[in-house]
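>> received
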Amino acid sequence: MTHIAEAPLDCPLCPRLVAFRDENAKRFPEFFNAPVPSFGPQNARLLIVGLAPGLKGANATGRPFTGDWAGDLLYATLARFDFTNGNYAGHAEDGLTLNDVMITNAVRCVPPQNKPVGAEANACRPFLTARIASLPNLKAILALGKIAHDNTLRALGERVSAAKFAHQASADFDGPNGNLRLFDSYHCSRYNTNTRRLTEDMFNNVFSDIRDYINN
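>> returned
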């Protein structure tokens, strides 16, 4: 069965997320309040997979990792490694474009407490599977956090046991359009950076590995 790579804006698949989306539309009518589409070009060689939109980040702006601390760190790092054009300003109309990278989420709708449940990840996974298959030049996937890692493995048709999550780990798999290397990083959340679980140097090291791999 062929699936589309982006969820419809009125996606009905997850009742809890639909209810939360409706609640937020009333509380924050100026927000995007819909499944957040992937961001980046179709010729990308790198796909970054996050967990889910943040309530006042991507759910507000309609662009992955835009409008919150995680995006501040991610887009600054992407710029450092020449994956961006223009300047990131924390909103979807800042003119920023991506070069050779696409950003998406394992779950496309904002979940309560930023924690999707397993059934929601399962319901949303066909979009991730289709997104991976839609990128003909894809060579690498970066999973931000263990949940993104596990969902990416399942989207590739692999068992979670096929590769253990660890910061700066990588593993090779057969993708729909050729060999893929899955890279891992701790999520670039404020909590992880505040607790020093993830430092900027640690994040840079992951992207250095990715850049070396996709350029060879």
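>> The radius of gyration is 16 Å.
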